[in-house]
Amino acid sequence: MTAPSEPQDDDPPPLNQPADLGFGSVVAQNVRGRFLNRDGRPNAKKYGLGAQRLARFYLASLEATWTVFFIWMLGALLLLNGIFALAYISLGDGALRGTDVMGMTDPFLQAFTYSIGIFTTTGTGEIHAYGTTANWLANLESFVGPVTLVIAFGLLIARLTRPRMRIAFSESAIIAPYEGGRALMFRIVNSQPGELSDVQARVSMARFESTNGARARNFHQLALERNSVEFFSLHWTVVHPITADSPLAGVTPESLADSQAEFLIFVNALEETFSTRVSTRSSYVWDEIRWDVKFASIFASGPDGVIAIDVERLSRTERLEEGATRTPAALERESFPKLIS
Predict the structure, then answer these.
(1) d(Cα 149, Cα 145) in Å, to the nearest integer?
(2) Which residues in the chain belong to E strands, given as ranges?
(3) CATH of the domain at 217
(4) Which of 16, 34, 192, 251 sees the fewest Cβ atoms within 10 Å?
(5) Contact at 8 Å (CB) between 221 and 204?
(6) Could you tell me the pTM of the whole model?
(7) Under DSSP, is residue 311 helix (H, G, I), strand (E, B) or coil?
(8) What is the pLDDT of residues 99-112, one digit of tens each?
(9) Do 124 and 236 fall within a single domain?
């Protein structure tokens, strides 16, 4: 019995594995915008699931920057204690006793300080609630406060223990000279101090093509110069050589615009701090591709024996002569007759 041959990158997908990346044929043909936003979020919405406010708040709290996260937490603490302070004031001047030792005459500040002591369980000193309603209000706050703090600390722990990868992509992808021909390129860098290894990248192209007079969106996986890097301590220029076998053979700015091409990028890596695989996504649409340029050097002067890069140069390019990459190269000419605009 002959062993089955291994599938090749250029082989068409099996009948039960469409090349539409999971969008489905209906979505692929009807969507007129981009599939992925630059930040990797799908350009899609789901209706009929309700507001899902708590779930969305949880996800937003994980994705927010540390500055925004602590502002949220501080704002929530001040808001809740302000509400309770107003509630104590509404009960009248006698709802809180012992406030004369606080050295404050403003009723709101007195009630607010008392509320913080109850809310955070740090104590209120000689100040105490007086009356049935005031004591029930204090009891309610003594329950709401610790529960709120537990939620806040839970979110903090979730942020600290959540493996993540923050990849910075160059502002544009480019069509640049490459080994006597042309290539589609973009650069990525790890913008976090944690180390990544075994970084793998996949690039797919979605574009409209005309076949037998019918215009439909098709998907193509682009062969890369290299699909993975073991060490990602600096940066990586991801390269798709445009050869005679490339779906981009003979491409021009006009044909790319006419096909409304979008390049979908998927990157996954091993995050060494948590020894967990993490992933990120992004995309470039046809008008985010630059022509007749090449990437400028990203390397910078570092201490002796240390290789250094300047991340601010990630998107920096150098101009080439007009038409340097807008014109198809000789390496692509074999496939010109089969190009579909």
Answers:
(1) 6
(2) 96-97, 128-129, 167-169, 173-178, 181-190, 196-211, 214-222, 228-231, 235-242, 262-271, 276-285, 289-291, 293-295, 299-300, 308-309, 317-319
(3) 2.60.40.1400
(4) 16
(5) yes
(6) 0.77
(7) helix
(8) 878 888 888 998 99
(9) no
